Amino acid sequence: MIGSRQKELLKEIVLEYIKTARPVGSKSLCKKFKCSSATIRNDMAELESLGYLEKTHISSGRIPSEEGYRYYVDNLMEPKKISGEDMLRLQTVFNNKELELNDAISKSLEIISDITNYTSVILGKESSDNKLQKVEVVPINERQLIAIVITNTGHVENKTVMLDEAIPTEEIAKTTELLNKMLIGTPIDEVPSKLEFDIKPIIRNYIKNYEVVYNAFYNALSNFTSERDVKFTGKANILKQPEFSTVDDVKNIISKFESKDMVSKIEETGDEVKVYIGRESEIDDNVTIVKTKYKVAGREGTIAIIGPKRMEYERVINMLEYLKEHIENKGKEDELEEK
Amino acid sequence: MIGSRQKELLKEIVLEYIKTARPVGSKSLCKKFKCSSATIRNDMAELESLGYLEKTHISSGRIPSEEGYRYYVDNLMEPKKISGEDMLRLQTVFNNKELELNDAISKSLEIISDITNYTSVILGKESSDNKLQKVEVVPINERQLIAIVITNTGHVENKTVMLDEAIPTEEIAKTTELLNKMLIGTPIDEVPSKLEFDIKPIIRNYIKNYEVVYNAFYNALSNFTSERDVKFTGKANILKQPEFSTVDDVKNIISKFESKDMVSKIEETGDEVKVYIGRESEIDDNVTIVKTKYKVAGREGTIAIIGPKRMEYERVINMLEYLKEHIENKGKEDELEEK
DNA sequence: ACTAGCACTGAGAAAGAAAGAGTGCTAAAA
DNA sequence: TTTTAGCACTCTTTCTTTCTCAGTGCTAGT
Questions:
Q1: CB under 8 Å to A175, separation ≥6 — which residues?
Q2: Could you tell me which residues come within 8 angstroms of residue B73 by beta carbon, excluding any fewer than 6 positions away?
Q3: Taking CB atoms and an 8 Å cutoff, what residues of chain A touch B148?
Q4: CB contact under 8 A, B251 and A245
Q5: CATH number of the domain that residue A246 is part of
Q6: CATH code of the domain covering residue A16
Q7: Number of domains making up chain B
Q8: What is the pLDDT tens value at each position of chain B, 339 positions in all?
Q9: Contact between B141 and A129 (Cβ < 8 Å)
Q10: Residue A59 class from Cβ within 10 Å (0-12 exposed, 13-18 middle, 19+ buried)?
Q11: Are strands B119-126 and B62-64 parallel, antiparallel or unpaired?
């Protein structure tokens, strides 16, 4: 088991390493623990054998292992509270009532990125339980029309529909009317199945070339569910961290950031602020990602901070928690105001 | 002035340096020019004094200076023709008739990025001479409505309008009707002034709270002109180039790429394919950017390739020219097909 | 106008030396 | 049983030194 001085020691080492990015030696901790370096060394050896500390080489000071950070985050961190200064910075955003929610989120993450020198990411998409409010169809020419879908939360998506053959305008109008009649109020992720099972049988009865029309609309309407915004801020920031000091490290992390499946690795499903350290991140063994889902009326997504494993965990977690809470509050306020 | 063997020599040095990324020595050119290294050295010294060549240190081989590249591009490059292999790669895209124009452009630039290991960029925006085809207004609730603008080319933009105070629906409807009546066919960049000078005087006469309504619509409709898509492909590619071999070089170029004013430096106004070498690029002294404007029905923008100064000029320029031509052709074909 | 020859230069790689930080272990002190 | 002092040892880092090599400029000769 891990003794109480050892806990204190692990915590101190994590904190020190986060601050300085250099292996922590036994001597430097003497004053703090009011004992000799030899004693510290004994405890360090113990912590190492438990897997919480590592050495960079045989006679170096210690650095926290992934398990060490994990233990710190799970058991040693101070009770959650955001620092006054950080809060102040973020408040400027939420005090500004003019700002739309999305802009407020972007702005906040820019601030975090800026003051921490980590990289931040926002994934956003329309909530899948939003309801369809209206379908508009605007013809551009004989073979091309635009389908516009509006949800109850004011989200608009449009898609150009190419028709394989010309369709009389009145058939388009009829179909549009039908779609509106039958689809208003339908959650957008149920639209495709409703098209298939409710609309198709009707449409086939009274439009002669129904397949062309049906397919066009099916394609247009069934893609809306998956639209997704992605915004990175401060991709270059992470390079300021001393862990990325060789060309290869830098190139490596940059390619990871640019790779196609980066986004899919960021999405978070849990409601809590979660921390994924090193290999847990699945992005790169040298980074930590802190992230959480947010959900407000009409929109949901993930906000995330990516930094080195040697991250200011407490600070980042607290800021993200603060942020999540305020996003969701602001979401509610905005909704009230609209009513 | 520069003699004809010297031209040949400069060309050879540029080509060799592009291939190998190492300073070119006099000996290596003996066979090619059927003369001794001393002769080459004399010519090299001459070319250096004219500013076309540089040394990395006092006894190194020569590398082309910015002026050297410039001279090569302007005077020494072979007559334009794209290589068969490159053409083949790009043809796969344009032969695929299914592909929408925008996707075809993206795809092409991905290919170029891929085979050259440079970074490619597409800027796109709706043409400013597109005409407004329809304005739709959909109320979401008492204080919020969505303005949707559709252009004759099928482009759709929408914007949420927040009303400072509730406005009766019939006033909204009246205004919408008026907008449609007066604005249809107006080029979108003339919309703001038409709003100000034609619509405002009318609206003030028959809507009592006209300022609220007017401002809301003015904000919604005057922003459409400036919307702009940006797509980078292969940002990490440029790092594969041997010129970016130190951490500082890499970090430097990455921050330049991420910086806010990067995009504004890419936009090109000229119709030709243009080459900006080193400091001419205004991005970074170590890169060259090759770019051109493209314009098709309804859309215009810039396509650009960014690479090291030691870029395969001929190849890139030819591909970009080929691309520009085919984009504009495809634009015309698509238009015909629609008719 | 070209070439051979030669002294010279700077980069880059390899090898060694010295300094410093920090460890583990042993034996003694508390 | 826990803590400490002391010491030998290890590894990194930094600084020199040395060598090699590619390539130059210049001079004198063809």
A1: A137, A203, A207, A213, A217
A2: B275, B277, B313, B317
A3: 136, 148, 156
A4: no
A5: 3.30.450.40
A6: 1.10.10.10
A7: 3
A8: 678 889 999 999 999 999 999 999 999 999 889 999 999 999 999 999 999 999 999 999 999 999 999 999 999 998 778 999 999 999 999 888 777 888 899 999 999 999 999 999 999 988 877 888 888 888 887 777 888 888 888 888 888 777 777 778 888 888 889 889 999 988 888 888 888 898 888 888 877 777 777 877 787 777 666 567 899 999 999 999 998 888 888 989 999 999 989 999 999 989 999 999 999 999 999 999 999 999 987 788 999 999 999 999 999 999 999 999 999 988 777 766 654
A9: no
A10: exposed
A11: unpaired
Do residues B219 and B234 both lie within one domain?
no
Amino acid at B99: L
Chain A residues interacting with chain B (CB cutoff of 8 angstroms): 100, 133-134, 136, 138, 140-144, 146, 148, 150, 152-154, 156, 158, 160, 234-236, 239-240, 244-247, 250-251, 254-255, 257-258, 337-339
Suggest the residue from A114, A121, A150, A333 to mutate for an interface test with chain B (most B CBs closer than 10 A). A150
A286 plus A137 within the same structural domain:
no
B20 and B148 part of one domain: no
Range of the domain at B192: 128-225
- A234 shares its domain with A329: yes
- Nearest CA among B102, B123, B126, B122 for reference residue B224: B126
